[in-house]
């Protein structure tokens, strides 16, 4: 029997998780249509075939997401893992909410249901296997282990640090969640337990740095440290400012806000103080690059959900002011960075239509755009026309063809914008000349000219097939004698 | 460049050109224009102390604007003493994009805002001497303040009894006496406006646009969506419990607009957003108090968005760069060249005067309407015949392709962001027949 308020799995939580399940379920049957996800799966395939990340195949995120994609193998399993990781995250969030509102079950309920809903809707791209979706699980678990930062063993602090490191190895902005916790233990809590806190923060940091250090060792042992550092650190630095917005004014704002919180720390209840600090750092992390991709905001959802429900509790004027200020910052960021707004019902409409028609075939694919259908056709063609280990070069923005066909790109780059961003033109051309792939596909969707490629196609290839605008070129066969 | 040091535009230059004249002359000239004299007199004193530069002129307006925002804060505080964070009212008044714009305009609008908000504050506080002074100041700043006085009078009459009849109306008798000296100029100016004004008849859409401008400002910005959404939520979470205060504020916002709208329908149109800018503070006061728990989040959302919008406005002045044009003319003008203002949809006579250019308006036929600033023009400011010069420089902001000067051919166009300096060369009349 489910006893209200006492059971480990109260009924409302089961219903909340069920709601999340149904909200996310249609994503399992969606076709390969999300570019980034296809890049992760392509890198996953590459790992499975023994290629070394960053050196042999490139993207600019830390390694865990690609390892998870490799483990999944295809989109369905990738998203299934995401679905269950999302549901587990909601359960962990429930435990976290209990830490923050130990005597207020209503607040635990409200915040968990808010989180369950927000983290499952298409508005924040909940159904797409982006790193942010996986990153928040270890962060939440890490905080559960150590909050309220007292009476915990050194080992727990170390494990918590490890969890933050896992999160960081999914995506770099998790470093800001880590920084918030570190600051809180080290600085905000300092007067209370003096050197014990100092030691705890050091152990926590050690736990965080240790796995990262191990990855350095690994890539160093493979003679690929420079690729690793370049892809996952240096390119991220340029990525941050490549959208035309510099993060420095926001960094100053973050510093001022943190300083203000520090000054007012004795007037603010401890858990709220921590929430405000965590929220401001994760919001900074989510808006670091100034790019408008809504899944970036997933990083903020745990602290945002807790803060939002905190508004319902009677607070001191300063607390209310800071709480409202922080929530307004979240809303403001949404408008300021002009985050893309996805239709909240479109995925469900497509799913419902396909279910009622019992047709998840061509018409379902077409609902996601003509290009998706084209990608499927090209992939089918590649599966039939190439052997499994044969490499293909695609000039355009569609890693989904690699992910669908299971064929690997010719060089390190999976999409044309990688070649453009990292100036990989010469490297690509010399590879084409050296490896002479049987097929080169020009998707005709890349506005940037690639004259050297055009020349090679004219001289050494002939048009073999077309799929809508996309053109498949076949290597000219030399005369037998 | 900021809004402080960008070039003056026509009306600002008119004010600055007028305000450097002796006091009696200012009063005489302004009485033949469309507004009362207080702003020009204050600007006259101010420029004597702080100079006639653009930042100096605009600083005066900015100070009026700051003081007006402070009075909005005081009104909010006196209406809802129990409300926390009264500084938010000041912030919202200061950041309101419509008021902010006139905080940097060298004209009478921020003084109108200050005098009307102070008048309302002293009215609410029943400090009658200060009320009379500020109300008279408002009436001597802009004629539209009369609609505010009528609103106040409405509330006085509503509460009048046989006992307090004379004491209630006494301030208005004094205000009436104080305004007597300007009655004849008012009559003259009203007759001028009735003879035809440049504004078109308002429609229902004009009223919607007016409120849009009041809340979101007149310049397009992508964050206006956030402000709009924030305002909707603030209204949604607002406590409508104190109807007396709400009605008073509503009357302050609505009565002047309704009266202006009605007059515009039956007489010459006088319906224009900036003349009614003193209707913005009551809207801000309605929005900011009294609040529920969630209101504060949306107030902050509006504040953050307005900060960005205003900062963008402050650092991206859109006024035509007349100063740059004047520098170009000064560098290139020779005795054998002429310089004129071409009267298209607007002329730039007063900017020319302010920046030290002698560029009369070329008007071959007809006369200019009074609202183009004729009260301040001298005979030599309009010419019917072009100067007989080898080349003529023409100042215009109209379509350069449509400008024709008899006996001259177009030579070159120098573009100063939609403000043009056009070179015309005398046509060669010595034709040879072969």
Strand order of the largest sheet of chain A: 2-1-3-5-4
Number of strands of chain A: 5
Taking the alpha carbons of the first and last residues of chain A, their distance comes to 84 Å
Give helix % range of chain B. Answer: 55-70%
Major sheet description of chain A: 5 strands, mixed
Q: What string, H for helix and E for strand, traces the elements of chain B in order?
A: HHHHHHHHHHHHHHHHHEHEEEEE
Mean pLDDT of chain A: 91
Summed up, the domain count of chain B is 2
How do the strands of the widest beta sheet of chain B line up side by side?
A: 3-2-1-4-6-5
How many DSSP H or I helices of chain A? 22
Report Rg of chain A: 25 Å
Distance between the termini of chain B: 58 Å
Structural class of chain B: alpha/beta
Major sheet summary line of chain B: 6 strands, mixed
Average pLDDT value of chain B? 92
| Strand residue content of chain B | 5-15%
* Net shape of chain B: globular
SSE arrangement:
The complex is a heterodimer of chains A (481) and B (434).
Chain A: H1 11-24, H2 35-48, H3 64-72, H4 75-100, H5 105-118, H6 131-146, H7 154-170, H8 174-188, H9 190-193, H10 195-221, H11 225-241, H12 248-263, H13 270-286, H14 301-310, H15 317-336, H16 346-357, H17 362-366, H18 370-385, E1 391-395, H19 400-405, E2 408-409, H20 416-421, H21 425-435, E3 439-442, H22 451-460, E4 461-467, E5 470-475
Parallel strand pairs in A: 1-2, 1-3
Antiparallel strand pairs in A: 3-5, 4-5
Chain B: H1 10-19, H2 23-31, H3 38-50, H4 54-79, H5 87-95, H6 97-102, H7 109-125, H8 128-139, H9 145-158, H10 165-179, H11 183-194, H12 204-216, H13 224-237, H14 243-266, H15 280-288, H16 295-315, H17 322-332, E1 337-342, H18 349-354, E2 361-362, E3 382-383, E4 391-396, E5 408-415, E6 420-426
Parallel strand pairs in B: 1-2, 1-4, 2-3
Antiparallel strand pairs in B: 4-6, 5-6
């Amino acid at each position: 029997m489910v006893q209200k308020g006492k059971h480990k799995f109260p009924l409302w939580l089961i219903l909340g998780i069920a709601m999340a399940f149904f909200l996310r379920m249609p994503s399992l049957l969606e076709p390969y249509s999300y570019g980034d996800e296809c890049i992760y799966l392509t890198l996953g395939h590459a790992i499975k075939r023994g290629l070394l990340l960053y050196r042999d195949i490139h993207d600019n995120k830390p390694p865990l997401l690609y390892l998870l994609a490799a483990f999944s193998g295809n989109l369905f399993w990738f998203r299934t893992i995401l679905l269950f990781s999302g549901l587990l995250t909601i359960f962990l969030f429930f435990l976290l909410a209990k830490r923050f509102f130990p005597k207020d079950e209503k607040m635990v309920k409200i915040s968990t249901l808010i989180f369950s809903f927000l983290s499952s809707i298409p508005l924040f791209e909940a159904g797409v296997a982006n790193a942010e979706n996986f990153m928040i699980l270890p962060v939440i678990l890490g905080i559960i282990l150590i909050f309220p930062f007292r009476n915990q063993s050194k080992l727990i602090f170390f494990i918590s640090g490890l969890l933050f490191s896992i999160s960081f190895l999914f995506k770099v902005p998790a470093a800001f969640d880590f920084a918030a916790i570190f600051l809180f233990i080290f600085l905000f809590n300092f007067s209370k337990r003096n050197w014990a806190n100092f030691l705890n923060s050091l152990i926590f940091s050690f736990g965080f740095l240790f796995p990262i250090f191990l990855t350095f060792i690994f890539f160093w042992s493979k003679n690929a440290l420079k690729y690793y550092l370049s892809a996952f650190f240096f390119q991220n630095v340029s990525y941050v400012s490549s959208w035309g917005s510099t993060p420095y004014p926001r960094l100053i704002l973050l510093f001022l806000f943190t300083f203000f919180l520090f000054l007012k720390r004795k007037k603010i209840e401890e858990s709220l103080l921590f929430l405000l600090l965590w929220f401001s750092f994760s919001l900074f992390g989510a808006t670091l690059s100034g790019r408008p991709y809504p899944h970036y905001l997933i990083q903020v959802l745990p602290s945002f959900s807790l803060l939002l429900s905190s508004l319902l509790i009677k607070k001191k004027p300063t607390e209310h002011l800071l709480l409202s200020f922080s929530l307004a910052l979240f809303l403001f960021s949404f408008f300021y960075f002009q985050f893309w707004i996805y239709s909240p019902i479109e995925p469900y409409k497509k799913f419902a239509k396909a279910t009622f028609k019992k047709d998840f075939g061509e018409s379902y694919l077409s609902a996601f755009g003509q290009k998706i259908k084209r990608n499927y056709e090209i992939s089918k063609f590649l599966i039939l026309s190439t052997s499994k280990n044969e490499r293909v070069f695609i000039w355009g923005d569609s890693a989904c063809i690699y992910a669908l066909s299971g064929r690997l790109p010719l060089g390190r780059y999976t999409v044309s914008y990688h070649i453009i961003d990292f100036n990989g033109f010469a490297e690509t051309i010399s590879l084409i000349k050296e490896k002479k792939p049987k097929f080169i596909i020009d998707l005709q969707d890349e506005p940037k000219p690639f004259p050297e490629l055009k020349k090679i196609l004219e001289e050494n290839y002939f048009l073999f097939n077309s799929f809508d605008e996309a053109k498949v070129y076949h290597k000219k066969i030399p005369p037998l004698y | 460049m900021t809004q402080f040091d960008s070039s003056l535009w026509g009306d600002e230059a008119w004010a600055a050109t007028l305000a450097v004249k002796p006091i009696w002359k200012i009063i005489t000239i302004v009485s033949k224009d469309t507004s009362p004299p207080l702003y020009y007199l204050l600007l006259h004193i101010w420029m004597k102390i702080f100079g006639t530069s653009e930042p100096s002129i605009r600083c005066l307006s900015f100070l009026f604007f700051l003081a007006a925002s402070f009075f909005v804060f005081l009104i909010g505080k006196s209406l809802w003493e129990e409300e926390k964070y009264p500084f938010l009212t000041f912030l919202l008044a200061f950041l309101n994009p419509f008021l902010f714009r006139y905080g940097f305009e060298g004209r009478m609008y921020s003084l109108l805002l200050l005098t009307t908000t102070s008048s309302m504050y002293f009215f609410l506080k029943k400090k009658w001497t200060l009320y009379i002074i500020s109300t008279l100041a408002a009436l001597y700043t802009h004629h539209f303040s009369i609609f505010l006085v009528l609103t106040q009078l409405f509330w006085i009459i509503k509460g009048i009894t046989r006992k307090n009849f004379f004491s209630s109306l006494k301030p208005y008798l004094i205000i009436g006496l104080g305004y007597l000296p300007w009655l004849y100029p008012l009559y003259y100016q009203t007759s001028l406006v009735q003879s035809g004004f440049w504004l078109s008849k308002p429609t229902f859409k004009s009223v919607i646009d007016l409120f849009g401008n009041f809340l979101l400002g007149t310049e397009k910005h992508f964050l206006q969506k956030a402000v709009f959404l924030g305002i909707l939520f603030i209204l949604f979470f607002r406590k409508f419990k104190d109807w007396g205060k709400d009605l008073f504020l509503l009357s302050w916002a609505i009565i002047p607009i309704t009266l202006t709208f009605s007059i515009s329908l039956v007489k010459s149109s006088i319906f224009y957003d900036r003349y009614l800018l003193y209707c913005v503070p009551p809207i801000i006061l309605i929005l900011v108090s009294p609040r529920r728990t969630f209101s504060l989040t949306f107030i902050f959302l509006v504040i953050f968005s307005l900060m960005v919008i205003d900062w963008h406005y402050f650092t991206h002045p859109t006024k035509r760069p007349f100063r740059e044009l004047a520098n170009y003319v000064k560098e290139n003008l020779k005795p054998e060249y002429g310089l004129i203002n071409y009267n298209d949809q607007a002329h730039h006579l007063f900017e020319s005067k302010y920046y030290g250019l002698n560029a009369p308006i070329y008007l071959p036929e007809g006369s200019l309407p009074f609202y183009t600033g004729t009260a301040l023009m001298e005979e030599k400011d309009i010419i019917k015949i072009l100067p007989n010069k080898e080349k003529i420089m023409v100042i215009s902001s109209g379509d350069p392709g449509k400008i024709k000067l008899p006996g001259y051919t177009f030579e070159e166009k120098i573009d100063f962001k939609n403000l043009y300096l056009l070179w015309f060369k005398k046509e060669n009349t010595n034709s040879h027949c072969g």
